[in-house]
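Sequence only, no structure available. Ideas?
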Amino acid sequence: MKKHSILTSKLTPPDRSQMIMRQRLLEIAENSEERLVIICADAGYGKTTIMEQLRSAYSGHSVWYQLGPEDRDLSVFLTHLAEGVSRAVPDFGKKTDRALMNTENVAADHENIMMVLVSEILEFAKEPLALCFDEFRHINDSNPTQEAIQFLVNHLPSSFRIMITSREKPNLLLGRLRSQRQLFEFDTDDLRFDLEEAATLFEGSCSPPLAERELKAWTKATDGWPVALTLSRNLLRSNRRLPEEILKDLVDNRGSIATYLAEEIWTGLSEKLKDFMMRSSLPDIIDVDICDKTLTEHKEINYSMKFLQEMEDRNLMIFSLETGKRYRYQPQVRQYLRRKLSEKMSPVDIAELNIRYGEAYEQRGDYDNAIKHYQDSGSMHLVAGIIEDQGEAFMAAGRYESLARWISVIPESAIKSKPLLAYVCAKTSEHLGEMEKAESMYVMAETGFNKKGDKHGTFICVYALAEYYFMKEMYRKSLEMATRALPLADEPLDRITVLTRMMRSSLIIGDTTRAFQILRQADEAIDDTMVEARLVLSTENMAVNWMTGDFKGSMETVLGLEKEATPQTSMQTRFIVLFFKMSNLREAAQYLEALATAEEAADYLGSEDKIQKLIFQLQKAVTLLCVGDGTAGREMMERIIAKIGGSAPLGPYFSFNYLGDYYRRYGMPDKAIELLIPELRSNREKDIRYSIASSLVNLGANKLRRVNGPGNTGLANLEEASQIAKENNYRFTLTQVHFQQAWRALGLRDEAKALDEITKSLDIAAHFQHNNFILQEGKISLDLLAFAFEADVHRDYLTKIFGLIGPPALSVLSPLIKSSSASLRMAVIPALGKAGGAQAAPYVRRLIRDTDATVRRAASAELASLRTNIEEPGKILTKRENQVFEMLTQGHSNAEIAQQLFISEPTVKTHVTRIFQKLGLTRRSQAAVYFHRDRHPAGGAAN
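Reply:
I predicted one. C-alpha cells follow.
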C-alpha cells in the first residue's frame, strides 16, 4: 500500500483557550478507572470539549483523532492512527509502517496489521496511552475501521484508555466491558450545563450581571443546552437588547432555539462577513488556502484570514483546528449557514461554487475532497475524470472501498463512454470479490478500447478476462482469451505473462504437450536483460513442478525466487511465491513452517484482494487439517465452504478432496463419498483433468475404506485416475493410486502385489517429497508402512515418516526387534528412536543384549542419545518450542500462550504435541519437571 499524505487537522486537538472548563464532569471521569469512556449526546452538548479536557488531564501519552467520512477507508484511518501514535510514542512506527507499506488491501487483512500495531505500541509505550476518537458517527456501521477500533478496545491493556464521542451509541461490543465495570459513559443529561456552569459561561457577558433567578430562567429556557447558552451569551454581548427581552423570546421559541439565536446574531453582521460565512460553509473544514483560491476572483492571498479572525474575536462558534490554517463551524451554525446560502444563491450557483472548491482541492492533489465537492455539484463527469486519471494510484494505495463508493454514483452511460474508467471499475469490482460485475465491466472496457483503436487498452482487458476465467475454473475459456491477448501484447514482459497463463491453463485441462511447448516458447523469447520476464517464467516453472507433483523441485524454485525478489518485484509474483512456498512446505510435512508462511503472507501482502485472502484462508485450513486432530482445520474449511455457497473455487488449488481425505482418515469414508461424488461430477462438466484425477483417486480410496461396500468401484476409480495421471505426468496422483492399491492388496494378503505397488508409491514420494500424503495416509495404514520397512523399501525415508507419525508407530515397529534378520533389527533402532523418543527406550534396551555385536553397539548409542534428549530437552527443541515449553510449565493454557506469542491456538497445540513427542512426555506435570531440571540440575539451587 502506498502511504497516504497526512492531514494534520485530523490529529490536532481543538483549541482549549476559549473552552469553559467542565470541572464537574472532569472530576467524575478522573476518579474513575474505566478503560473505555464513551461520550454520547446530541449535537451542541460539548462532547468534543469534554473529551479534549479529559485528554489534557490524562497523565500519559495521548492521541487525538478527528474522524470523518474518509476514515471509512481503513487505509486512511490506519495511516493517520500510526502517525498519531508515532508523535506520542518515541520509536514507534517502523513495524507498523512496514506492515502498511507491504499490504495491498488493508481492509482484507486488518487484523494482522492491528496485531502489529498493538504489539508495537506495547513494545515502545513507556507509560499508558489515551486514544481519543471524535465524531464516531462517521464510521458507526459495519465497516473495517469500526472493527479496527473494536480490536483496540479488545486488545489494549486496561491501563490504557480509549475515549469516543458520538451522537449515537457506538456500534461496538461492549457487554463484557460493561459487566467488568470497564466502561464509563456520559450521555446528554450529564452534559447539560448546571446553574454553576451557566454562571461561569455568562460571567462578564452583560452589565449589570445576570441575577441568580435570571440564570435559572435562562438555563431552564435552553434546557441546559451548551450551544444555546453559548449563543445566548454572544447575543447578550452585542448589547442591542435587554436580557429579559431575549429570554422572553427564547421561552416563546423553545422549539427552534438554535434558529432564533442564529437569527439574532446574524442580523448584526456585515454583509461581507455574512457572504463569507455562507460560502465557506460548503466544505467540512474551512481551509484558508482553499478558500482564498475559491472565494476570490483573483485567488487573493489572506482574503479569508480577516474574516476568520473577526469571527474568532466575536465568538461566532468557529473552532480552530490548526493555528492560522484550518477551522470548523459548530454543526448547528454550519447547518444554519448552508440554509441561508440556499436562500441567497440558486442551485446552479451553489453547484458552480462546489465545482470551484473541487478544482482547488484537485489542484492541491486532495482528490477525496475534490470528489466530494464534485459530487455535491452533481458533476459526475468530473468525478469520473478524477477516477479515470487517478484510478491506478488509488488502487496502488489499496483504496478499493473508496473507489467503489465513488463509482457507485457515476451513471453507467458515463462509464461506458470512458473505457479506462470502465477498466478501473472492473479492477475495483474484482478486488472486492464482485466477479460477475468485474466481467461485464472488462467486456465494456474492451469494447470501448476497440472502438478507439487502443491496442494496449484492448490487451489489458482481454488478458484481465483470461485471469478472471482462470479464477472461475473456466480454463478453456481462459486459454481462449489468453490466445486472443497474445498478438495484442507489444511488450516482451506482457508476451511472457500471456504465454505462462496459456501454459498453466493447458496443463490443467490435460494438454500437457502444448503446455510444455508454450513453456519452451516463452523460455526462448527471453534474453539476459529481461530480468522481470525471467522472474515471471520462474514462477511458472514453480507452478508446473507443483502441478506435476515435483514438490521438491517447486520448493527449490521458491527459495531461488525469494533470493531474487526485490522491493520492485510485483505484488502478484510475491503472492504466487508465498502461495507455493506454503503449499510445498505442507506437502513436505513442515506444517508449522507452512502456517508461519501464512502469517508472513498476511503481513507481507495483506492478501491483495478478497480472492487472495480466500486462497490463503483455504491453504491455512488445509494445513490445519494435517495438524493434531485436524478439528480446527475442518471447522475453518466448513465455514469457508458455507460462505462460498458450497462451490469449490480456485480449481486445482482447492477442492473438496482435502475434506474427503480428512473424513477418510478419521473413519468417515461414507461422508467423504457423499462430498466427493458431486465434486467429481462438477470437475467432469468443466473437463478439468487435474481435478478429475484428484477427485477420482480420493473417491476410490474412500470406497475401498468402506466397511460394507464393494471395493471394485473404488478400484475402477483408481484405474481411471492412474490413466489420466500417466497421460499428463501427474506424479502426485500416481503416488496416491499406488499407495491405495498396495493397501488393498495387503488387505487381501497379496503380498507380491502389495510390495510392487508400495515400492512404486514410495519411489515417487521419496524423490518428490510427497511426505504429507505418506504421513497422513500412513497414520491409518501403519501395517503397510511397516510391511514396506521390513521389505527394505526406502527405509531411510520411512524412518523420517515414522518420526513424524510419532509414538503410535511404535506399535508396528516394536515387533521388528524380534526379527531373525540382523540388518532389520539394526535398521529399526533409529526408527524406534525417531518415532517414540523416550517412549522407545524400553524397546531399544532389549537390543543391548542382542546376539549381534553391531546391533548391540547401535542400541547402546541410541539409548545414550535418548537419555541425553531427556536430560537436556532445551537443546533438541526449536526456539519457538522452547518458548511454548516454558509457558506451559508455568501453567498457561493454550489460549493464553497463543495470545502472548501472537500465534493461533491450533499452532500452540501442534507445538505442545511436538514437544511431548520429542521428550517422550504424556502430561503437563511431566513437562514442568523436565523444564526445571534442565535449568536447575541436581545440586543447583533454584532462585
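The chain has a mean pLDDT of 83.
Hope that gets you unstuck.
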